[in-house]
Amino acid sequence: MAMEAGKLPTAGKPIRCRAAVSRKPGEPLVIEEVMVDPPMPHEVRIRIICTSLCHSDITFWKMKDPPGCFPRIFGHEAVGIVESIGENVDEVTEGDVVVPTFMSDCGECADCKSKKSNLCSKLPFKVSPWMPRYETSRFKDLNGEVLYHFLFVSSFIEYTVVDVAHLTKIDPAIPPNRACLIGCGVSTGVGAAWRTANVEAGSTVAIFGLGSIGLAVAEGARLCGAARIIGVDTNPDKFEIGKKFGVTDFVNAGNCDNKALSQVINEMTGGGADYCFECVGLASLVHEAYACCRKGWGKTVVLGVDRPGSQLTFSSFDVLHSGKSLMGSLFGGLKAKSDIPILLRRYADKELRLDEFVTHEVGFEDINKAFELLIEGKCLRCVIWMGK
């Protein structure tokens, strides 16, 4: 019988392929053969072309207690090609190039239909070890043991299964080692300035923490036309890097002459920055950011992931009298299916800088080297190629 047009012989069958499996917290990943089930309804199986390493992978790789769980397949910044689709999937087809995202965009719930939010109610974000609709895994090792998913993506594998609500079709002309960055970090930072804060031209921005997310915020603020972008970090080397992304001033957080960080920035700006972004994940830094955010219209945006249970405490008097806003931003407030194509078009038009984020590229066999580089602070983004 002739094969259906467009269908690969693997469609509907399990695929045996290589994955970098995390067996124990903090231990090197093990590249081994695993089995990947075919997609269920509303799911898509994709062949990963390349994936990049994000700090969130490292955070959960080190985590001994829940929501940390093992054995697990990490990775959530990637680009791939659709190998096969499950039932009820009509927005992508075999051969499409796609970017998976940890945030869903179902297009059906009140939130996804609104311009005000990217927090889908139908498939809400959580740190789950399963697929979003079925609470089951699509991965097993060769002994039949279940391997857990990560952030609904799990891209440290040659083939993965992703819910269609977590997939965005992209222009295949975009280089994959750039498109993968849009899956999490760069989108989160750029989106926080563009969509969450709605940074205005001519405004002043302060960014606490110049890692990949902070630098992406700077890039977003630059694209929005911010006049002054103040970078705050304990590493003075970050200023030179930051200049590429529009950072105009630098404050060394470890050397403020016995002044509070917020006092230094308030003095620099004559009353505070219009927009402050916390990109580290420290409650104390959120307080500092809020304290040097301009009264009346200032916005403080929290992007950093703090330890579980961490609390923020604000004076009721200050909140009432200062008139400032404090908000969180998951995935930069972006709606994946509509905003990712815009960002990639801006990259193609040489407006959005992506090239400068990629500092290293390795083959799949050297994935543990990517972990070492990021932990040592020697890289922004390391792209891991599956087929090289």
From TrEMBL:
Q: Which molecular function term from Gene Ontology is one that the record holds?
A: alcohol dehydrogenase (NAD+) activity
Name of the molecule in the record: alcohol dehydrogenase
- Tell me which residues make up the Alcohol dehydrogenase-like C-terminal domain: 213-346
Q: Which PROSITE patterns match?
A: ADH_ZINC
Q: What quaternary structure, including any partners, is listed in this protein's UniProt entry?
A: Homodimer.
Which key words are in the record?
Answer: Metal-binding, NAD, Oxidoreductase, Zinc
Source organism (scientific name): Eucalyptus globulus
Q: What is the lineage of its organism?
A: Eukaryota, Viridiplantae, Streptophyta, Embryophyta, Tracheophyta
> What SUPFAM superfamilies does UniProt report for this protein, alphabetically?
GroES-like, NAD(P)-binding Rossmann-fold domains
Gene3D superfamilies assigned to the protein according to its UniProt record, in alphabetical order = Medium-chain alcohol dehydrogenases, catalytic domain (3.90.180.10), NAD(P)-binding Rossmann-like Domain (3.40.50.720)
Annotated Pfam families: ADH_N, ADH_zinc_N
Catalytic activity of the protein: a primary alcohol + NAD(+) = an aldehyde + NADH + H(+); a secondary alcohol + NAD(+) = a ketone + NADH + H(+)
Domain of life of the native organism: Eukaryota
Q: Which family does it belong to?
A: Belongs to the zinc-containing alcohol dehydrogenase family. Class-III subfamily.
